[in-house]
Amino acid sequence: MKSPAMIIFDYGNTLIYEKELDLERAYKALYAQIHKNPDKIDFITFYEKGMAIFEKVKSRALQNDVEIHTHNFYNCLFQILNVEFNLSYTELEILFWEALAPCRAMPNIEKLLLFLEAKNIRTAVISNIAFSEKALTARINKYLPRNKFEFIIASSEYGFRKPDCLLFEAALKKACLSADEVWYCGDNPRADVIGSAALGIKPVLYTSSFACPYDNENHISPDFEFTKISDWDELIELIEG
């Protein structure tokens, strides 16, 4: 099998394992950073308004593969409640995310990335995520400090989510590569396998033994052949042939 010129990875449950999503804990971390609160909004009001806005995001955007940037979400929440912060939106995102989802690198991913670097196989990331590209990059660099990702694409910056081909098209342009030179690895059959294959990129479905704290649509079965692995060592073996 011919080796790819580049492998692009999904983020969640692919590069990084987030074992839980604790929204109340995340909102408490955010609430603790309020600098001005003239209307004396209490935590319950803050939390419930945030969750109400998020329900609108899920029903109107996420179900239609549209991404609402966290900064837009913050604009709604903070201005409606008339609260202000000293931290930037990106700093607040990072703080919120750390409280929301404790995480660690997936098993053997660091080994794989070093192997790809040694083989001169380029790497990058495309993630369906509301957090900003800056926050996503900071998180990846924190937990995979030796990575050599050439670029990191967050759907928040584009307005569309995988499986929309726009994110994959943007990645190919950034890489200056054709689709047949690129592989895409992710854990979601619809977003990652169907999405990348539609553009001619070779999809690799990664299915780990860890429970995913969100719906990664693993009930979907693409109606074409594709590569499936359950450990990153398998990808090393596949490339070495």
Automatic annotation (TrEMBL):
Keywords recorded for this protein, A-Z: Hydrolase, Magnesium, Metal-binding
Pfam families: HAD_2
Cofactors that this protein relies on: Mg(2+)
Keyword Membrane: no
Highest taxon listed in the record's lineage: Bacteria
Magnesium listed as a keyword: yes
GO MF annotation list: metal ion binding; phosphatase activity
Gene3D superfamilies recorded: HAD superfamily/HAD-like, Putative phosphatase, domain 2
One Gene Ontology term from the biological process aspect of the record: small molecule metabolic process
Alphabetized SUPFAM superfamilies for the sequence: HAD-like (SSF56784)
Protein name (Swiss-Prot/TrEMBL): HAD hydrolase, family IA
